[in-house]
C-alpha cells in the first residue's frame, strides 16, 4: 500500500487515477484548490487544500507521502503555458525542501513531443489547431525542465497516446519511451481508465524513474 498525494484530483485524468489507486487499496490524498468541490468519500481518501504553483503547498502535501502525482491542466493554450512548466518548477522546489524525505514525482504529460513514424514530433503534424499546439508545447517545456533542471528529484512523466478519452478499463496497454504508441493502422489511443491503470502500475513498480514514457494500445 502506497501513500499517494495528487494535484489535479478533480480533473478528468486525476479523478480516474484516484479511483484506480483507491480500488487497489492505496491511501490517497487529493490536493485541490477548493476542497468543497470534492464530493466523494472513501475511508482511504483525504482531501486537503493546495495550489500546485505554491512550493510551500507542494512541500506540505508531499511530506509523509511515497508518491506525489501531478495531473493538473489549464483550460486553454495560454492557461497551459502559465501552468505546466511553472508547476513542475514549483513541484521541484517544494520537493527539494524535503531533502531525502521527498517522495517520487509522477507528472501527467502530453503526447505532442512524442515521435511519430516519420521521426518527427507529433506537434509537427500538419493540421493541428494552434490552441492544441500551444498545450502540446507547454507540456514539452515542462518535460524539458524535468530533464534538464530537476536535479536529485526522482521524477517520471507519463504521456498519453494521441487520443485519450473515457472508455473501457481493459488493464492492457503497450509502453514506449519517446515514440508514439500506435496500432498497425497508425491509430494511437488509450482510454482514460487504462491510462490510470498505467500510472498506478508505475506507482507500484517504479519502472521509469528519471524519464518520460508513454502508453497506448
Ligand atoms: N484529457 C486529455 O485528452 C489529455 C490528453 C493529453 C494530455 N492531457 C493533460 O493531462 C492533464 C490533465 O488533463 P485533464 O483532462 O484531466 O484536465 P482537467 O479535467 O481540466 O483537470 C485539470 C485539473 O487541474 C487542476 N488545477 C489547475 N490549476 C491548478 C493549480 N494551480 N493548483 C492545483 N490544481 C490545479 C484543476 O483543479 P481545479 O478543480 O482547482 O480547477 C483540475 O482538477 C493536463 O495537463 C492535460 O493537458 C490531457
Walk me through what this model shows.
With 217 residues, the chain is an alpha/beta fold. 34% of the residues lie in helices and 21% in strands. The chain has five helices and ten strands. Strands 3-2-1-4-5-6-10-8 form an eight-stranded mixed β-sheet, with helices on both faces. Helix 4 links the parallel strand 5 and strand 6. Helix 1 crosses helix 5, helix 2 crosses helix 3 and helix 3 packs parallel to helix 4. The model has no long low-confidence stretch (mean pLDDT 96). The structure holds NADP nicotinamide-adenine-dinucleotide phosphate. The site of NADP nicotinamide-adenine-dinucleotide phosphate has 24 residues, from helix 1. NADP nicotinamide-adenine-dinucleotide phosphate (NAP) binds next to helix 1.
Task: Summarize it.
The chain is of the alpha/beta class and 217 residues long. The chain contains five helices and ten strands; from the N terminus they run βαββαβαβαββββαβ.
Low-confidence stretches are: none
Main pleated sheet? 8 strands, mixed
- What is the overall number of helices? 5
H/E topology pattern: EHEEHEHEHEEEEHE
Strand order of the largest sheet: 3-2-1-4-5-6-10-8
Bound molecules: NADP nicotinamide-adenine-dinucleotide phosphate
| Oligomeric state of the chains present here | single chain
Shape: globular
Number of strands: 10
Gyration radius over CA: 16 Å
Task: Summarize the amount of helix as a percent range.
Answer: 25-40%
How does the helix and strand content classify structurally?
Answer: alpha/beta
Distance between the termini: 27 Å
Strand content: 15-25%
Global mean pLDDT: 96
Amino acid at each position: 500500500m502506497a501513500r499517494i498525494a495528487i494535484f489535479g484530483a478533480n480533473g478528468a485524468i486525476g479523478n480516474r487515477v484516484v479511483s484506480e489507486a483507491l480500488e487497489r487499496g492505496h491511501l490517497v490524498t487529493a490536493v485541490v484548490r477548493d476542497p468543497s468541490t470534492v464530493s466523494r468519500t472513501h475511508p482511504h481518501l483525504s482531501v486537503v487544500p493546495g495550489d500546485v504553483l505554491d512550493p510551500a503547498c507542494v512541500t506540505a502535501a508531499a511530506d509523509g507521502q511515497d508518491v506525489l502525482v501531478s495531473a493538473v491542466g489549464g483550460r486553454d493554450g495560454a492557461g497551459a503555458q502559465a501552468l505546466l512548466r511553472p508547476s513542475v518548477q514549483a513541484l521541484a522546489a517544494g520537493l527539494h525542501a524535503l531533502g531525502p524525505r521527498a517522495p517520487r514525482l509522477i507528472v501527467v504529460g502530453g503526447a505532442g513531443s512524442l515521435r511519430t513514424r516519420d521521426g518527427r514530433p507529433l506537434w509537427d503534424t500538419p493540421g493541428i489547431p494552434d490552441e492544441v499546439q500551444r498545450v502540446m508545447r507547454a507540456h514539452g517545456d515542462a518535460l524539458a525542465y524535468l530533464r534538464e533542471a530537476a536535479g536529485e528529484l526522482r521524477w517520471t512523466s507519463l504521456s498519453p497516446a494521441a487520443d485519450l478519452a473515457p472508455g473501457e478499463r481493459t488493464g492492457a496497454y503497450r509502453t514506449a519511451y519517446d515514440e508514439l504508441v500506435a496500432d498497425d493502422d497508425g491509430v494511437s489511443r488509450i482510454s482514460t481508465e487504462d491510462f490510470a491503470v498505467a500510472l498506478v502500475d508505475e506507482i507500484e513498480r517504479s519502472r521509469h524513474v528519471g524519464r518520460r514514457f508513454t502508453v497506448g494500445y
